[in-house]
Design goal:
Elements lengths: L5 E9 L6 H4 L19 H4 L22 E4 L11 H9 L3 E4 L4 H9 L3 E4 L2 H13 L4 E5 L4 E4 L4 E3 L4 H9 L3 H6 L2 H24 L1
Parallel strand pairs: 1-2, 2-3, 3-4
Antiparallel strand pairs: 1-5, 5-6, 6-7
Length: 208
């Protein structure tokens, strides 16, 4: 997993509340098992018309927001089903941080597992950043995980809280598999000792 320390760039203002995971990645795209390739279907039903052409008014299709690494959204972002594909799609699209007043718990956990930083900020601060991004497309925001601060080019500066364990995992780029592999020597030693004990036990049974 790519380490997260500081991300800086334009912010995408998605001025909607209760954005559920079926909107982030519709159910018809859940058949694939790879984590990659979901960026092109992110917000598919909002991003494309019925004929498959891009919806020009949708924020992700606007030229000034292409490549933006930060998404600003309304409350209860990521509600609905527990599909991890939602986090995969955001990450594959290039989003590194999502700012919102609140997140669904499972979605929030999936973000941390996939190198995304969900940042809770008060409604009034999200509203301020949202308005600035809407009024000035390309408005730049910095999310600093090392200092746990969000700033912007207009002087906004605030702190945010994040679980210490989750923060350290993001800073080091560690998911659950990486954390397990850090104990590989201990795991291997346990397996060797267990195998030796089983062999000795079987040998004793044979002699008896």
């Amino acid at each position: 997993m790519k380490p997260f320390r500081t991300v800086e760039g334009p912010a995408i203002p998605l001025d909607r509340v209760d954005v559920d995971t079926d909107q982030i990645v519709p159910k018809q795209f859940l058949k694939r098992v790879e984590k990659t390739g979901y960026g092109k279907v992110l917000f598919h039903d909002w991003r494309y018309r019925e004929d498959g052409s891009p919806e020009p008014d949708f924020v992700l299709n606007r030229e000034e927001f292409k490549g933006a690494p930060i998404l600003i959204a309304g409350r209860n972002f990521g509600c609905g089903s527990s599909r991890e594909h939602a986090a995969w799609a955001l990450a594959d699209f290039g989003i590194r941080a999502v700012l919102a007043p609140s997140f669904a718990d499972i979605f929030r956990s999936n973000c941390f597992q996939n190198g995304l930083l969900p940042v809770n900020l008060p409604d009034e601060e999200i509203r301020l950043l949202m308005e600035r991004a809407l009024q000035k497309p390309g408005h730049r925001i910095t999310v600093d995980l090392e200092r746990c601060r969000v700033t912007d080019e207009a002087g906004f500066d605030t702190s945010f809280e994040v679980d210490a364990f989750r923060r350290e995992c993001l800073l080091q780029g560690l998911d659950d598999i990486d954390l397990t592999l850090k104990h590989l020597d201990d795991i291997q030693r346990f397996e060797n000792e267990r195998e030796a004990a089983l062999t000795a036990s079987k040998s004793g049974e044979s002699e008896a």
